[in-house]
């Protein structure tokens, strides 16, 4: 046993300071290459900037629609765009994403249309998109369950010889769940090609990180499972992209799983039913607003000459078009059939389910308004005409 342990490579231990390639003022970090990662090309950074601007405008628009009562609920990712988009942009077309309920902008980045993303948030379907078309699993509301699903798919892909990587997004609160630890352990034992990205936004709803873990960082969990771990400035999209890309490449090459913690912040409330003023101060929120991931990259791109005023205006206009399309989609009422509740429950319909369907069908038919009496309608019309 000791020989086996001695033969294993020492996993990468997370640094105490988060990996950063562009600082909070938008300047390149000197000596950042010592961490083993280099600044992405201007073309890549412009692509990341465009995706973040589009995602921010979408998120703000959806939050407004929720406050107008157009959606039942919506968990905003405002402020976390760098963490999410930097991570998912590292995936290839055939790779799979396993998101949480807060990762709608990640779906948008992967090409899911807004109306399909928002289908579940206004009560149409559990999910409105085809998971096989977009290589995205349903957004998981139960904490950490999708981590096990990601490991399962990644392990299956490895056994079949497919060069597929699974990336799963988690929150800091999810790392306190048993499912997350089972996923970490299984992935490491089986060397599954999976990347775990923990978006540490400081709170598990209202529980601060200090009351969730006594570890230096959540990335420290990685070494206990024998996999590399990285602690990254999640509001530096360049660093998130560079680190996650390396982890995806390592997984694809047979190097096994990686755990990445992105330090970020949720600017908006947990959902529209939450009151964040009960557990955090306005001063704290204001401090994090100054660390905005979009403003940071914009400053760098303008200083380097990669982002012109014309390109800035073009991206802003595209974002407004996306917001308008989202509004239009949500202003169209969906056509719902309550009997769809019984579809896709079993491959072969069971008698008990058929009876329930028939019972509901009768109830719905009985509740339908009776057709108006034509003679009465004509009388009313005639009377109305005489009054006029």
Description of the structure:
Pfam families: E1_dh. InterPro entries: Alpha-ketoacid_DH_E1_comp, DH_E1, PdhA/BkdA, THDP-binding. Its cofactor is thiamine diphosphate. This is Pyruvate dehydrogenase E1 component alpha subunit. Residues 366-388 are annotated as: Disordered. α2 (42-67) packs antiparallel against α12 and α2 runs parallel beside α13. Strands 1-2-3-7-6 form a five-stranded parallel sheet, sandwiched between helices. A two-stranded antiparallel ribbon has the order 4-5. β2, α8 and β3 (194-200) form a beta-alpha-beta unit. With 388 residues, it is an alpha/beta fold. The chain folds into two domains: 2-330, 3-Layer(aba) Sandwich (Rossmann fold), CATH 3.40.50; 338-387, no CATH class. Mean pLDDT is 91; it is low at 376-388. The chain is built from 15 helices and seven strands. Helices cover 45% and strands 8% of the residues. It starts with a helix and ends with a helix. It has helices at 2-7, 42-67, 81-88, 104-109, 114-117, 131-134, 145-160, 178-189, 221-224, 237-252, 282-289, 293-304, 309-330, 351-367, 374-387; strands spanning 96-98, 166-171, 194-200, 203-204, 207-208, 229-233, 258-263. It is globular.
């Amino acid at each position: 046993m000791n020989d086996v342990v001695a033969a294993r490579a020492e996993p990468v231990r997370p640094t105490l300071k988060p990996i950063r390639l562009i600082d909070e003022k938008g300047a390149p970090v000197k000596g950042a290459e010592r961490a083993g990662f280099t600044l992405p090309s201007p073309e890549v950074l412009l692509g990341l900037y465009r995706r973040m601007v589009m995602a921010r405008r979408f998120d703000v628009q959806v939050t407004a629609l929720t406050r107008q009562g157009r959606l039942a609920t919506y968990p905003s990712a405002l402020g976390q765009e760098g963490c999410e988009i930097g991570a998912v942009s590292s995936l290839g077309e055939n790779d799979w994403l396993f998101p949480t309920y807060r990762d709608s902008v990640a779906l948008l980045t992967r090409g899911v249309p807004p109306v399909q993303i928002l289908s579940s948030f206004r009560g149409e379907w559990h999910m409105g998109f085809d998971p096989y078309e977009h290589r995205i699993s349903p957004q998981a509301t139960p904490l950490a369950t999708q981590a096990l699903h990601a490991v399962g798919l990644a392990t299956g892909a490895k056994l079949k010889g497919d060069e597929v990587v699974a990336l799963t997004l988690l929150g800091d609160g999810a790392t306190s769940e048993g499912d997350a630890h089972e996923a970490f352990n299984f992935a490491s034992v089986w060397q599954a090609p999976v990347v775990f990205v923990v978006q540490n936004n400081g709170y598990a709803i209202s529980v601060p990180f200090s009351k969730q873990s006594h570890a230096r960082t959540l990335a420290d969990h990685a070494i206990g499972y024998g996999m590399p771990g990285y602690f990254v400035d999640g509001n530096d999209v360049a660093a998130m992209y560079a680190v996650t890309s390396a982890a995806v490449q390592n997984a694809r090459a047979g190097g096994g799983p990686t755990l990445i913690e992105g330090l970020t912040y949720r600017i908006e409330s947990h959902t529209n039913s939450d009151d964040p003023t009960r557990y955090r101060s306005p001063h704290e929120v204001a401090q994090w607003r100054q660390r905005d991931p979009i403003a940071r990259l914009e400053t760098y791109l303008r200083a380097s000459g990669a982002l012109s005023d014309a390109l800035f205006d073009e991206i802003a206009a595209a974002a407004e078009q996306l917001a308008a399309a989202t509004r239009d989609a949500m202003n169209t009422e969906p056509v719902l059939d309550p009997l769809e509740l019984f579809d896709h429950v079993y491959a072969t319909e069971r008698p008990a389910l058929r009876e329930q369907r028939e019972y509901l069908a009768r109830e719905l038919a009985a509740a339908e308004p009776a057709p108006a009496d034509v003679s009465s309608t004509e009388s009313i019309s005639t009377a109305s005409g005489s009054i006029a």
